[in-house]
Amino acid sequence: MQIIRSVQQMQQRCLTARQAGKRIAFVPTMGWLHEGHLSLLREGRRRGDLLVLSIFVNPTQFGQNEDFDSYPRDLERDAALARDVGVDLIFAPEAADMYPRGYQTFVDVEGAMTSVLCGASRPGHFRGVTTVVTKLFTIVQPHVALFGQKDFQQLAVIRRMTADLNLPVEIVGMPIVREPDGLAMSSRNVYLTDEQRRQALVLYRALCEARRLVAGGRTDSAGIVESLRAMIEAEPETRIDYVEICHQATLERQRTVDADSVLLLAVFVGKTRLIDNGYLLPTD
Amino acid sequence: MQIIRSVQQMQQRCLTARQAGKRIAFVPTMGWLHEGHLSLLREGRRRGDLLVLSIFVNPTQFGQNEDFDSYPRDLERDAALARDVGVDLIFAPEAADMYPRGYQTFVDVEGAMTSVLCGASRPGHFRGVTTVVTKLFTIVQPHVALFGQKDFQQLAVIRRMTADLNLPVEIVGMPIVREPDGLAMSSRNVYLTDEQRRQALVLYRALCEARRLVAGGRTDSAGIVESLRAMIEAEPETRIDYVEICHQATLERQRTVDADSVLLLAVFVGKTRLIDNGYLLPTD
Fold first, then answer.
1. What CATH number does domain A2-174 carry, 1.10.3720.10, 3.40.50.720, 2.60.120.260, 3.40.50.620?
2. Which residues of chain B have a Cβ shorter than 8 Å from any chain A Cβ?
């Protein structure tokens, strides 16, 4: 396994691999790897000849008052985990190489898909995501790229962008990986105190409750959401960002639950913003 | 020579060619080919194994009241010219295939470079250009792409975008090709009446006058521009959009002429908007 810092060197290496007929599988991350990331890497290992992991805490997708500075970073730890799952190349660029002086170009998915949910709470976030993912795709030249479904809206936006810009990359979404008690894996879980960690479980409990209500015949989104909000607000350190039932592809709000309905949650627990989501009807 | 209409078929063809080790040279155009385009194609023929010409009158770079509908189109005529200079593939997509229903992604070079000059007169124009060029690059997968320097600002914006998005494409700018009397070649010259065609020469005469003034020791941009404006306004059917002296790389206005100074002109002659430009000091 090799760690490459230089954008130019990485691109040259990947263009050469492609030219040699290698199939490139790519997992872009911000590091501080957990089982969710590792599940993507294992699937990538199966799908590609050359498995590339990028680790880049991308400044353009963080807002002014967000956790860019405190986001956990440990390249040595991540490299050891990556080696164990068979990563070939880690791309870990510097921000000054990704966004050199005079940088001016941004990729934007316009419309509701990026202005609702996390787009409403985090203005500019998806513009940062789509810009860096476009750049990573042109540098790494992957045949296939894997993303976690925990960032459900991000995955939908990246699918849209990839199709719109004709990027020749297959986008694969992989299921949320959860702790044994149900908490969705996230690099940000490290911020939680023991008590907050306990309260954070309410996201998963809300998802289970929503599924229970739907299985029992409820289809009115407003009523379901109201119950879930009460459940989440009962935990003293929580503050709801959003609780919404949306169409899986368009992310438009749905009044009535159907097979395309996804529950999407964003909840602050203390100062830590956690997200979770899931389909409300069985998907298989 | 083959004409390909389908985006998917074109991309597949180009990915296969790259994989086979072919060097792809690409000239994106809106068709109605003239000697300017042909000079790009001849240079592309020298630089690539596979020479691709795209012909696409891109709706997203035209404003509401511009000439999208009347822009001259004749694929048969263009195909004959292309064959003569050795084009291998013409890519002539339909707008509905380039921008299918639900299309939402745009590439933007932000800041002064796209808000001055043509960016000021044609809001959204460069956003349309950078978006379609990104798409054409991901579809055609060129090693080298050739653009005319007549669209000086467009070339600067595309260079910026290509560098910022790490697109692995060498951008080549080629000199303006002029009619024997000095008029810069343009597909839009076809709109001119005989009388307007005569008056349109004032763009080239203004450029020559500016060079003469600079050769004579003048370096004050404001004074030079004032003389040129008077000269242009003396032609009855002209209406000046802009006459500016700018730095060749940043496109910022310059008070004093130096080796980086470019004169940039946009002038309506009747209803036809013509552009021209040139360095004010010898460049070799």
1. 3.40.50.620
2. 7, 11, 15, 18-19, 21, 102-111, 113, 130, 134-135, 138-139, 141, 160-161, 164-168
In three-state form (DSSP H/G/I as H, E/B as E, the rest C), the secondary structure along chain A is CEEECCHHHHHHHHHHHHHCCCCEEEEEECCCCCHHHHHHHHHHHHHCCEEEEEECCCHHHCCCCCCCCCCCCCHHHHHHHHHHCCCCEEECCCHHHHCCCCCCEEEEECCHHHHCCHHHHCCCHHHHHHHHHHHHHHHHCCCEEEEECCCHHHHHHHHHHHHHCCCCCEEEEECCCECCCCCECCHHHHHCCHHHHHHCCHHHHHHHHHHHHHHCCCCEHHHHHHHHHHHHHCCCCEEEEEEEEEECCCCCECCECCCCEEEEEEEEECCEEEEEEEECCCCC
* Closest by Cβ to B11, choosing from A18, A104, A168: A168
According to the annotation, is A125 in a ligand binding site? no
User: Which two three-digit tokens encode residue B108?
Assistant: 């933007």
CA distance B234 to A256: 68
Q: Identify which of B7, B15, B110 has the shortest CB distance to residue A104.
A: B110
- Domain ranges for chain A, please list them: 2-174, 187-277
* CB nearest B104 (choices: A134, A139, A164): A164
Q: Is A125 a catalytic residue?
A: no
Instruction: Nearest chain A residue to B97 by CA: give it.
Output: A164
- Per-residue pLDDT in tens (0 to 9) along chain B, 284 residues: 999 999 999 999 999 999 999 999 999 999 999 999 999 999 999 999 999 999 999 999 999 989 999 999 999 999 999 999 999 999 999 999 999 999 999 999 999 999 999 999 999 999 999 999 999 999 999 999 999 999 999 999 999 999 999 999 999 999 999 999 999 999 999 999 999 999 999 999 999 999 999 999 999 999 999 999 999 999 999 999 999 999 999 899 999 999 999 999 999 999 999 999 999 999 87
CATH class of B187-277: alpha beta
Q: Per-residue pLDDT tens for A27-75?
A: 999 999 999 999 999 999 999 999 999 999 999 999 998 999 999 999 9
Residues of A in contact with B17 (CB under 8 A): none
What span, in angstroms and rounded, lies between the C-alpha atoms of B11 and B136? 9
Helix (H), strand (E) at residue B3: strand B2-4
* Burial group, residue A250, by CB count within 10 angstroms (0-12, 13-18, 19+): middle
Catalytic residue among B37, B125, B143, B247: B37
- Whole-angstrom CA distances from B2 to A152, B35, B79, B88, B91 are 42, 21, 9, 6, 9
Q: What is the ipTM of this complex?
A: 0.95
- The CA distance from A168 to A163, in Å, is 8
